[in-house]
Amino acid sequence: MSTDLSTNIPESPFVAVRQKEFRLYIVQRFFFTMAMRMITTVIWWKMYQITKSPLAMAFIGLSEAIPAISLALYSGHVVDKSDKRTLLFRNILFYFLCAFALMMITMPHTEMSMGKKFVQFAIYFTTFCTGVLRSFTGPAASSILAQLVPKNLLPNAVTWSSGTWLSSSVIGHASAGFLIAYTGYTGTFIFILIYLLIAAFCMYRIERKPIVHTNASQKTWESVKEGLRYVFHTKDLLGAFSLDMFAVLFGGAVAMIPFYAGEILHVGAIGFGWLNAAADIGSIAIILTLTFHPLKKKQGLILMYVVAGFGLCIITFGLSKVYWLSFFALLLSGVFDGISVVVRGTILQLKTPDEMRGRVSSVNSMFINSSNEIGNFESGVTAKLMGVVPSVIFGGGMTLLVVIIMWLKAPSLRKFEY
Q1: CB 276 within 8 A of CB 254
Q2: Which residues form the domain of 315?
């Protein structure tokens, strides 16, 4: 598929937003992502408070990663053979049930009557359930995008979708910190449940979508292999996925932020919320910039540079003992990551045939789940072995090493343009 769409892309930065169903989609995406980010902030802070253990924190990421990664390839097959709108609507309702369960688990009465160990393992179990949902939600949310806007508007739609995700992530992280401090866990979850209902309502108003899968009789394993073959034979796609996966796998410092907030920077729940949101603030700032001034050329080369910059920011964060410097390092890491998100997301949309979007998106989801959740687990394990600060510095250094390897091994990605 040719990626040269420059002559067909309208100049206005608002062209995708003028599509009614896309507007509903990004409103749904805003409230759903905000709810998910708030849940993440709440359970990380709760787990830190009841365990004070890096390894216990690491198992949160692992609890979600195991089902998300295990089911990723199968979920892509299911998404391609399903009405994506209905699948997303149902999954949001299931997320509502999981959020309600977490609200009950984190109530003071639960901890007093059942004990901290019960709360800890109940969080792991519920997180496992959300991992199952995530394996289907991620590919469906990505692949439905091409059914909401004309193909020539996809780059603009990807930028708006990424910006919506990042802005809601910022608000979710930061507001969760404030809400925990002033309303407690139960009050925070009430907001989360309301946001999920809004997301479900917006998704319900989108029309059901036709199924694009061209071979309905194809066996599941053959369908899965077809998606894998496509990704591994499309070098630009594989290179972008791999660069992101290994960079975030080693360079993600999210799992250690509670320890920096509580034991190194001494800033409490509110400071923790802002540190959690810092990277997303940087990302949304750059996404807004790219919405009005999109990258015109050398996007593959830029992707290499920004991932290297991300690694340097993580090293700076690991060394810092000053709150404003730690915040700025995470903020700048978000700027670099935001550019990476847009470039990688656009490559995914432009290089994927319509009938394979679910399967290709599921492979992408598997890479993302590997890098984020397994990365959090890796951070917890290395922190246990090395200490918190050395583990973060080590992760940033490994990110730089990954960029060097990809620079040498993936020359086609360096030369990629759209």
Answers
A1: yes
A2: 16-209+219-414
